UniProtKB/TrEMBL annotation:
<protein>
    <recommendedName>
        <fullName>GH16 domain-containing protein</fullName>
    </recommendedName>
</protein>
Length: 317
Protein backbone atom coordinates (compact mmCIF):
# COMPACT_ATOMS: atom_id res chain seq x y z
CA UNK A 1 0.00 0.00 0.00
CA UNK A 2 1.46 3.34 -1.04
CA UNK A 3 1.75 6.23 1.42
CA UNK A 4 1.40 9.81 0.27
CA UNK A 5 2.48 13.12 1.77
CA UNK A 6 1.05 16.39 0.38
CA UNK A 7 2.21 20.01 0.86
CA UNK A 8 -0.13 22.94 0.07
CA UNK A 9 0.74 26.57 -0.55
CA UNK A 10 -2.04 29.06 -1.26
CA UNK A 11 -1.28 32.26 -3.09
CA UNK A 12 -3.80 35.03 -2.66
CA UNK A 13 -3.67 38.70 -3.53
CA UNK A 14 -7.12 40.23 -3.74
CA UNK A 15 -7.66 43.93 -3.23
CA UNK A 16 -10.30 44.54 -0.60
CA UNK A 17 -9.96 41.10 0.98
CA UNK A 18 -10.52 41.48 4.72
CA UNK A 19 -7.56 40.15 6.73
CA UNK A 20 -8.14 37.49 9.37
CA UNK A 21 -7.25 37.96 13.01
CA UNK A 22 -6.30 34.38 13.73
CA UNK A 23 -4.82 31.52 11.69
CA UNK A 24 -6.98 29.01 9.82
CA UNK A 25 -6.03 25.47 10.84
CA UNK A 26 -8.47 23.49 8.70
CA UNK A 27 -8.24 23.14 4.91
CA UNK A 28 -11.04 24.82 2.96
CA UNK A 29 -14.06 22.70 2.18
CA UNK A 30 -14.77 21.36 -1.31
CA UNK A 31 -11.19 20.64 -2.35
CA UNK A 32 -10.89 20.79 -6.12
CA UNK A 33 -9.02 17.46 -6.28
CA UNK A 34 -12.04 15.61 -4.86
CA UNK A 35 -13.83 16.26 -8.16
CA UNK A 36 -11.10 14.55 -10.20
CA UNK A 37 -9.98 11.14 -8.87
CA UNK A 38 -6.27 10.57 -9.55
CA UNK A 39 -6.25 14.13 -10.99
CA UNK A 40 -7.76 12.86 -14.25
CA UNK A 41 -9.21 15.85 -16.10
CA UNK A 42 -8.26 18.38 -13.44
CA UNK A 43 -6.50 20.51 -16.06
CA UNK A 44 -9.89 21.18 -17.71
CA UNK A 45 -11.45 22.74 -14.62
CA UNK A 46 -12.14 26.48 -15.13
CA UNK A 47 -10.42 27.28 -11.82
CA UNK A 48 -7.15 25.61 -12.87
CA UNK A 49 -4.51 27.92 -14.31
CA UNK A 50 -1.60 25.54 -14.91
CA UNK A 51 -0.82 21.84 -14.53
CA UNK A 52 2.33 19.79 -14.91
CA UNK A 53 1.64 16.06 -14.97
CA UNK A 54 4.84 15.04 -16.78
CA UNK A 55 2.73 12.69 -18.88
CA UNK A 56 3.29 13.82 -22.48
CA UNK A 57 6.94 12.93 -23.07
CA UNK A 58 10.19 14.66 -22.23
CA UNK A 59 10.43 16.84 -25.38
CA UNK A 60 7.02 18.39 -24.68
CA UNK A 61 7.79 18.81 -20.99
CA UNK A 62 11.07 20.61 -21.60
CA UNK A 63 9.48 22.86 -24.22
CA UNK A 64 7.14 24.32 -21.59
CA UNK A 65 10.00 25.73 -19.53
CA UNK A 66 12.00 28.85 -20.24
CA UNK A 67 15.16 27.56 -18.53
CA UNK A 68 16.28 23.92 -18.21
CA UNK A 69 19.36 22.78 -16.29
CA UNK A 70 20.86 19.29 -16.72
CA UNK A 71 18.25 17.75 -18.98
CA UNK A 72 20.53 14.71 -19.30
CA UNK A 73 19.87 13.97 -15.62
CA UNK A 74 16.07 13.91 -16.05
CA UNK A 75 13.90 10.88 -16.71
CA UNK A 76 10.27 9.82 -16.34
CA UNK A 77 8.85 7.14 -14.04
CA UNK A 78 5.33 5.71 -14.39
CA UNK A 79 5.74 2.99 -11.73
CA UNK A 80 6.81 4.78 -8.53
CA UNK A 81 4.09 7.46 -8.53
CA UNK A 82 1.70 9.05 -6.01
CA UNK A 83 -1.48 7.60 -7.57
CA UNK A 84 -2.63 5.32 -10.37
CA UNK A 85 -2.02 6.74 -13.83
CA UNK A 86 0.41 9.43 -12.67
CA UNK A 87 3.90 10.05 -14.02
CA UNK A 88 6.85 11.38 -12.03
CA UNK A 89 9.86 13.41 -13.09
CA UNK A 90 13.13 12.09 -11.68
CA UNK A 91 16.04 14.52 -11.41
CA UNK A 92 19.49 12.99 -10.86
CA UNK A 93 22.87 14.53 -10.11
CA UNK A 94 26.43 13.22 -10.38
CA UNK A 95 28.95 14.39 -7.80
CA UNK A 96 31.94 16.16 -9.28
CA UNK A 97 30.05 16.81 -12.53
CA UNK A 98 26.87 18.71 -11.65
CA UNK A 99 24.78 19.94 -8.70
CA UNK A 100 21.42 18.60 -9.86
CA UNK A 101 19.08 20.38 -12.23
CA UNK A 102 15.94 22.45 -12.59
CA UNK A 103 12.94 23.44 -14.65
CA UNK A 104 12.07 27.15 -14.56
CA UNK A 105 8.97 28.66 -16.14
CA UNK A 106 8.18 32.34 -16.53
CA UNK A 107 4.48 33.29 -16.62
CA UNK A 108 3.61 36.31 -18.72
CA UNK A 109 1.60 37.98 -17.37
CA UNK A 110 2.09 36.95 -13.77
CA UNK A 111 -0.58 36.16 -11.21
CA UNK A 112 -1.93 38.85 -8.88
CA UNK A 113 -5.00 37.05 -7.60
CA UNK A 114 -6.04 34.10 -5.43
CA UNK A 115 -3.78 31.19 -6.35
CA UNK A 116 -3.08 27.76 -4.96
CA UNK A 117 -0.09 25.62 -5.83
CA UNK A 118 0.02 21.92 -4.98
CA UNK A 119 2.64 19.35 -5.91
CA UNK A 120 3.98 15.95 -4.87
CA UNK A 121 7.60 15.32 -3.99
CA UNK A 122 9.55 12.26 -2.87
CA UNK A 123 12.83 12.57 -0.96
CA UNK A 124 14.96 9.38 -0.99
CA UNK A 125 16.59 8.56 2.32
CA UNK A 126 20.02 8.16 0.72
CA UNK A 127 19.94 11.94 0.10
CA UNK A 128 19.85 12.68 3.83
CA UNK A 129 22.70 15.04 4.66
CA UNK A 130 23.10 16.21 1.08
CA UNK A 131 19.97 18.31 0.49
CA UNK A 132 20.56 21.99 -0.18
CA UNK A 133 17.46 23.30 -1.99
CA UNK A 134 15.01 20.68 -3.26
CA UNK A 135 11.41 21.81 -3.75
CA UNK A 136 9.16 23.87 -6.00
CA UNK A 137 9.73 27.60 -5.58
CA UNK A 138 7.12 30.14 -6.62
CA UNK A 139 7.61 33.88 -6.77
CA UNK A 140 8.15 36.89 -8.94
CA UNK A 141 10.76 39.16 -10.46
CA UNK A 142 10.39 42.69 -11.76
CA UNK A 143 11.49 42.93 -14.43
CA UNK A 144 10.45 39.36 -15.21
CA UNK A 145 13.18 36.93 -16.28
CA UNK A 146 13.18 33.63 -18.17
CA UNK A 147 15.64 32.09 -15.68
CA UNK A 148 16.14 31.98 -11.89
CA UNK A 149 17.74 35.04 -10.33
CA UNK A 150 17.42 34.55 -6.54
CA UNK A 151 20.26 36.87 -5.42
CA UNK A 152 20.96 34.85 -2.30
CA UNK A 153 22.40 36.85 0.57
CA UNK A 154 20.85 40.13 -0.53
CA UNK A 155 18.19 41.60 1.74
CA UNK A 156 15.04 43.60 0.88
CA UNK A 157 14.56 43.96 -2.92
CA UNK A 158 10.84 44.31 -2.25
CA UNK A 159 10.45 46.12 -5.56
CA UNK A 160 12.18 43.34 -7.52
CA UNK A 161 11.90 39.86 -5.96
CA UNK A 162 9.61 37.44 -4.14
CA UNK A 163 10.70 33.82 -3.55
CA UNK A 164 8.61 31.32 -1.58
CA UNK A 165 9.41 27.68 -0.85
CA UNK A 166 8.69 24.96 1.71
CA UNK A 167 11.50 22.44 1.89
CA UNK A 168 13.86 20.38 4.07
CA UNK A 169 16.00 22.49 6.43
CA UNK A 170 18.74 21.66 8.91
CA UNK A 171 19.89 18.24 10.09
CA UNK A 172 16.79 17.11 12.06
CA UNK A 173 14.54 16.17 9.14
CA UNK A 174 12.49 19.36 9.57
CA UNK A 175 10.38 20.95 6.86
CA UNK A 176 10.17 24.75 6.92
CA UNK A 177 9.65 27.81 4.79
CA UNK A 178 12.42 29.52 2.86
CA UNK A 179 11.30 33.05 1.97
CA UNK A 180 12.72 36.10 0.26
CA UNK A 181 10.41 39.11 0.57
CA UNK A 182 10.37 42.89 0.91
CA UNK A 183 10.71 43.05 4.68
CA UNK A 184 12.68 39.84 5.22
CA UNK A 185 14.98 39.63 8.23
CA UNK A 186 18.74 39.32 8.06
CA UNK A 187 20.75 36.50 9.59
CA UNK A 188 24.46 36.09 10.30
CA UNK A 189 26.71 38.97 9.22
CA UNK A 190 23.68 40.93 8.03
CA UNK A 191 23.08 38.59 5.07
CA UNK A 192 19.69 37.30 3.94
CA UNK A 193 19.45 33.62 2.98
CA UNK A 194 15.74 32.93 3.42
CA UNK A 195 13.40 33.37 6.39
CA UNK A 196 11.99 30.31 8.19
CA UNK A 197 8.67 30.56 10.04
CA UNK A 198 7.59 27.13 11.28
CA UNK A 199 9.88 27.01 14.34
CA UNK A 200 7.96 26.09 17.50
CA UNK A 201 4.68 25.54 15.67
CA UNK A 202 2.72 22.62 17.18
CA UNK A 203 1.71 21.70 13.62
CA UNK A 204 5.30 21.40 12.34
CA UNK A 205 6.13 18.41 10.15
CA UNK A 206 9.13 16.22 9.41
CA UNK A 207 10.33 14.91 6.05
CA UNK A 208 8.67 11.63 5.17
CA UNK A 209 11.67 9.89 3.65
CA UNK A 210 10.99 7.49 0.76
CA UNK A 211 7.31 8.49 0.76
CA UNK A 212 5.34 10.68 -1.61
CA UNK A 213 4.58 13.96 0.14
CA UNK A 214 1.90 16.45 -0.90
CA UNK A 215 2.69 20.13 -0.42
CA UNK A 216 0.31 23.08 -0.85
CA UNK A 217 0.99 26.78 -0.07
CA UNK A 218 -1.20 29.91 0.27
CA UNK A 219 0.14 33.39 -0.43
CA UNK A 220 -1.92 36.53 -0.25
CA UNK A 221 0.02 39.37 -1.85
CA UNK A 222 -0.15 42.68 -0.04
CA UNK A 223 -2.43 45.40 -1.39
CA UNK A 224 -1.51 48.22 -1.57
CA UNK A 225 2.24 47.86 -1.86
CA UNK A 226 2.71 50.00 1.26
CA UNK A 227 0.65 47.64 3.46
CA UNK A 228 1.78 44.61 5.49
CA UNK A 229 -1.45 42.67 4.94
CA UNK A 230 -0.05 39.72 3.02
CA UNK A 231 -0.45 36.13 4.22
CA UNK A 232 1.11 32.70 3.86
CA UNK A 233 -0.41 29.33 4.68
CA UNK A 234 1.19 25.90 4.37
CA UNK A 235 -0.26 22.40 4.40
CA UNK A 236 1.60 19.10 4.27
CA UNK A 237 -0.44 16.02 3.34
CA UNK A 238 -3.59 18.07 3.79
CA UNK A 239 -2.73 18.98 7.41
CA UNK A 240 -2.13 22.59 8.40
CA UNK A 241 1.51 23.41 9.15
CA UNK A 242 1.10 27.15 9.76
CA UNK A 243 -0.70 30.32 8.77
CA UNK A 244 0.94 33.74 9.06
CA UNK A 245 -0.77 37.07 8.47
CA UNK A 246 -1.42 40.50 9.99
CA UNK A 247 -1.80 39.92 13.74
CA UNK A 248 -1.20 36.16 13.85
CA UNK A 249 0.31 33.95 15.07
CA UNK A 250 2.20 35.14 18.14
CA UNK A 251 5.94 34.78 18.50
CA UNK A 252 9.14 36.73 17.95
CA UNK A 253 11.87 37.23 15.40
CA UNK A 254 15.27 35.75 16.26
CA UNK A 255 17.54 37.02 13.49
CA UNK A 256 16.09 35.50 10.29
CA UNK A 257 13.82 32.97 12.05
CA UNK A 258 10.29 33.53 13.35
CA UNK A 259 9.81 31.60 16.61
CA UNK A 260 6.15 30.74 17.25
CA UNK A 261 5.18 31.33 20.89
CA UNK A 262 1.71 32.05 22.28
CA UNK A 263 3.13 34.59 24.74
CA UNK A 264 4.98 36.57 22.05
CA UNK A 265 4.02 39.52 19.90
CA UNK A 266 1.57 39.24 16.99
CA UNK A 267 3.13 38.58 13.59
CA UNK A 268 3.09 41.82 11.61
CA UNK A 269 1.89 40.37 8.32
CA UNK A 270 3.77 40.31 5.04
CA UNK A 271 4.76 43.24 2.95
CA UNK A 272 5.81 40.84 0.23
CA UNK A 273 6.49 43.68 -2.21
CA UNK A 274 6.88 47.42 -2.34
CA UNK A 275 6.02 47.55 -6.04
CA UNK A 276 2.51 46.73 -7.33
CA UNK A 277 4.02 45.58 -10.64
CA UNK A 278 5.80 42.74 -8.84
CA UNK A 279 3.51 39.71 -9.24
CA UNK A 280 3.90 35.96 -8.94
CA UNK A 281 5.36 35.19 -12.36
CA UNK A 282 7.49 32.05 -12.06
CA UNK A 283 7.75 28.50 -10.78
CA UNK A 284 11.12 26.85 -10.23
CA UNK A 285 11.21 23.06 -9.89
CA UNK A 286 14.58 22.78 -8.20
CA UNK A 287 17.01 20.00 -7.32
CA UNK A 288 20.17 21.57 -5.89
CA UNK A 289 22.62 19.16 -4.24
CA UNK A 290 26.13 20.62 -4.26
CA UNK A 291 27.80 18.31 -1.69
CA UNK A 292 27.43 14.86 -3.28
CA UNK A 293 30.87 13.17 -3.30
CA UNK A 294 32.61 12.78 -6.62
CA UNK A 295 31.21 9.83 -8.54
CA UNK A 296 28.19 9.40 -6.26
CA UNK A 297 24.64 10.20 -7.32
CA UNK A 298 21.40 11.33 -5.68
CA UNK A 299 17.94 12.09 -7.03
CA UNK A 300 14.52 13.57 -6.27
CA UNK A 301 11.06 13.00 -7.79
CA UNK A 302 8.20 15.42 -8.50
CA UNK A 303 4.68 14.76 -9.71
CA UNK A 304 1.20 16.27 -10.21
CA UNK A 305 1.76 20.01 -9.90
CA UNK A 306 -1.39 22.15 -10.10
CA UNK A 307 -1.88 25.93 -9.85
CA UNK A 308 -5.48 27.03 -9.36
CA UNK A 309 -7.75 29.80 -8.16
CA UNK A 310 -8.96 27.77 -5.19
CA UNK A 311 -7.87 25.09 -2.76
CA UNK A 312 -6.74 21.93 -4.54
CA UNK A 313 -5.99 19.40 -1.80
CA UNK A 314 -4.34 15.97 -1.99
CA UNK A 315 -5.10 13.57 -4.83
CA UNK A 316 -8.35 11.64 -4.38
CA UNK A 317 -7.82 7.97 -5.23
Amino acid sequence: MKQFTCILIVLAGIAGFKPLHEPIRQPPANALATLYPNDVGIEQDPDVLYTEKFNDGMPNILARYTDVLNREGMSLDSVDVPANGCVALKMTNLGGKNDGGHLFRQFDPGFDSVLYIRYYVKYPSDSKGYIHHESVWIGGYDPATRYPHPRAGTCALGDQRISIAYEPVGSRDDMDTYLYWGDMRAGARGKCYGNDLVNGSPQSKKISWDTWMCVELMIRLNHPATASNGELQVWQDGAAVGHWGPGFPRGKWLADSWINNKTGQPFEGFRWRTNEKLTLNYIWIEFYDDTTPKGASHHIKFSNLVIAKRYIGPIKS
